Amino acid sequence: MSASLVTTEIASPVGPLLAGANDDGVCMLEFSDCDRASQTVSASSRPKAGASGFLDQLTAELADYFAGRLTEFRTPLAVAGTEWQRKVWAELRRIPYGVTRSYADVARVVCSARAARAVGHANGQNRIAIVIPCHRVIASGGALGGYGGGLWRKEFLLNLERH
Predict the structure, then answer these.
(1) Which residues pair with 25 in a beta bridge?
(2) Burial letters for 136-151: b for 16+ Cβ neighbours within 10 Å, e otherwise?
(3) Active site residue 134
(4) Dihedral-angle region of residue 126 (phi above 0 means left; psi in -120 to 50 means alpha; beta otherwise)
(5) Where are the domains of the chain?
(6) Which of 81, 78, 71 is nearest to 50 (CA)?
(7) Which 8-state DSSP code applies to residue 144?
(8) Hey, what CATH topology would domain 83-162 get?
(9) Distance between alpha carbon 114 and the CA centroid of its chain, in Å?
């Protein structure tokens, strides 16, 4: 993470979220009760005005999302990952609100249906939950599949978006 990382905790219906931003945008949105959140943030530095502004915008957008008033996030992101991961995550952001795709569907778009496992791995490495909607990716047979924040959260988010 950037040396100018600023973090905040955001209350939500799926539990507290730990958000982080740097001078370029939001770089982290994790469920704070998951081990990965504490691993991501070892230390925060002094607040930066730009990063704090991104977190304020994200907090407002998340409130609207959970209230059913927002279907597309506009907060700038600072996505860190391999070229493959960024390609998968960009495709996830193209999945419309309230719609699901299978891992194979996403793999077909980014390269080949045979890369479904690689898509699943990239999903698991996503550090910006909800905004990069990895929860919208399910197994080919319709099962929810895995979710780093827990299947109950994935089910909650999908139900929220369906209604």
Answers:
(1) 22
(2) bbbeeeeeebebbbee
(3) yes
(4) beta
(5) 6-66, 83-162
(6) 78
(7) -
(8) Arc Repressor Mutant, subunit A (1.10.10)
(9) 24
